[in-house]
Structure formats: structure tokens, C-alpha cells
Design goal:
- About 45% of the residues lie in helices and about 20% in strands.
- With about 270 residues, the protein is of the alpha+beta class.
- It has one domain.
- Helix 2 packs across helix 4, helix 3 packs antiparallel against helix 4 and helix 4 crosses helix 5.
- The N and C termini lie far apart (about 105 Å).
Length: about 270
């Protein structure tokens, strides 16, 4: 028996889900040991009806947090490149291997399961289960809708339909269409559904390039915020002294002004 973890493909995420929704990040709950982000579903892509608010592990970005007495600024998350449908969000590169930071108001495409304990958002390591999208018609949303539409077909018929759809999209002049075609072919490769090895290798190389490009952008931005946080931390006593001196100067000025006008009013 093979117990090795395998990252679920898009088709596997769709099949496994009882609900698929577009949801908006609205708030944060929990404590310092278990932060959760609250999201409000706004569009139903799969499921009998729209679920209520959901929670996912993570924190809101763009704010200061207290980390053992040290103030740390959590930078705003960079939106995904909407044409990269081959790799997960670069923020999922550490820890539990799922992303942990979200911007308030950000729209996410979420895969949700249901059992006796309620609803659970899928947060599998290295998967594209927590992706943000710029709009309801973004390439990632369109790709997921294709899989949902084909769920009623038997596996072999579904694979054939996916391959045909990818071939049609690949002939388009639209970069979005071709990105969706790559995603479908990559999913078929992940599912080991008989795609030519050479095509799979090319897609793997493209996925690696897309991932490296986004990581370079992310790491550069994170470094800027890290340096800013360190600067503020090291110089907070200077800023505090400067603020105190400024308030003292303003007070002296106002007092001098008051004395001046009092003297002028005397006969």
C-alpha cells in the first residue's frame, strides 16, 4: 500500500467537495494559538444551496500583531497571477504548506466538505484549494466550472471530454483560454490519465517557472516589510523621543504665544 502523500489535482478537489463557493474574507476570529479567518460565501459553483459563513486557518494581513512583546507587521498579500493555474499560492511554502495570510475583502475559491461535524474547507498541503481570484469570471473560476459541468460523466468519458476541451482552448488567441488548457492537461497528468510524458514534462517545467517567478516577487516584497519592521523595532526609542520632543516644543510655543498676547492686552 502506497502511503505517500499526493497533492490532489483540480478534478480530485472538485469530486471530493460537497460545496464549491466563491467567498469573501470578512474578519478574523480565534486566539493567538488558533487564528481563523471568517469568509462569507457569495457565489455557489457546486452544491445544493449556499452555505453560511465558513472559517479557514489563517490571519488577516496588513496590520500589526503582538508577538511576545514585539510588534510585527503582517504585509498585505500579493494577488495571484490569474494566468498561473499550475501552482498553489506562494504563501503556502512553509509551516503546514498551506497559505496563512489573507487580505480583508479578498475573494477566494473554496472547496468544502460536509460531515456530521459540519462544514469543512479543504486545506490540503501544496494544493490549489485556497486560491484568491480577481473576479467571478477569472481563469481559475472558469477552469473549476469545467470540471463541475463534467461530473456526471464516467471517468473515461470525462477524461476524453477534458482532453477535447483543452485542445480547443489551446487553439485560442486568448492567454486566459490557453492557461485553462494548460491546467486541464496538467490535471490529466497528475491523475496519470495517459497524457504523453513529453507534454507532462513541459508542463512541469512551466509550473516550476511560474512558481519561481511568483516567489521572487513575494520574497522581494516580504524582504522590504521585514527590513521596515526591523528598522522600526531598532529605532522605536528614537521615534518615541522625537515624538516627546515635538510635543514639548509645541507646548512651549503655545505657552509663549499665550504669554505674548497676555502682555499685549495689558494697558
Amino acid at each position: 500500500m502506497d502511503d505517500e502523500y499526493r497533492t490532489p489535482s483540480t478534478s480530485q478537489l472538485v469530486e471530493r467537495s460537497d460545496f464549491i463557493v466563491l467567498a469573501q474574507v470578512v474578519s478574523e476570529t480565534g486566539d493567538e494559538f488558533s487564528n481563523k479567518v471568517v469568509v462569507q460565501p457569495v457565489t455557489l459553483l457546486k452544491g445544493p444551496d449556499m452555505p453560511g459563513k465558513l472559517t479557514i486557518s489563517g490571519m488577516l494581513s496588513g496590520r500589526l500583531i503582538d508577538n511576545g512583546g514585539n510588534k510585527i507587521f503582517l504585509p498585505a498579500v500579493l494577488p495571484r497571477n490569474p494566468l498561473n493555474l499550475l501552482t498553489p499560492h506562494p504563501d503556502g511554502g512553509g509551516g503546514s504548506c498551506t497559505r496563512k495570510l489573507y487580505n480583508r475583502g479578498m475573494k477566494l475559491l473554496l472547496f468544502v466538505t460536509h460531515d456530521n461535524d459540519g462544514l469543512h474547507v479543504i486545506q490540503d498541503a501544496y494544493s490549489r484549494s485556497l486560491e484568491d481570484v480577481p473576479s467571478d469570471n477569472a481563469p481559475w473560476v472558469r477552469a473549476v466550472k469545467i470540471y463541475v459541468a463534467l461530473l456526471g460523466l464516467a471517468q473515461n468519458a470525462r477524461n476524453e471530454a477534458l482532453a477535447e476541451k483543452a485542445a480547443i482552448l489551446n487553439q485560442s488567441s486568448s492567454l486566459e483560454d490557453r492557461a485553462i488548457a494548460d491546467e486541464i492537461n496538467w490535471t490529466l497528468c497528475q491523475n496519470n490519465d495517459g497524457k504523453p510524458l513529453q507534454k507532462c514534462n513541459k508542463l512541469a517545467e512551466k509550473a516550476l517557472h511560474e512558481e519561481e517567478t511568483e516567489l521572487v516577487i513575494k520574497n522581494g516584497k516580504d524582504r522590504q516589510w521585514w527590513e521596515r519592521t526591523q528598522y522600526l523595532s531598532k529605532n522605536r526609542h528614537v521615534f518615541s523621543l522625537s515624538k516627546t520632543l515635538m510635543l514639548l516644543a509645541v507646548s512651549i510655543f503655545l505657552l509663549s504665544l499665550s504669554i505674548f498676547y497676555s502682555i499685549r492686552k495689558k494697558p
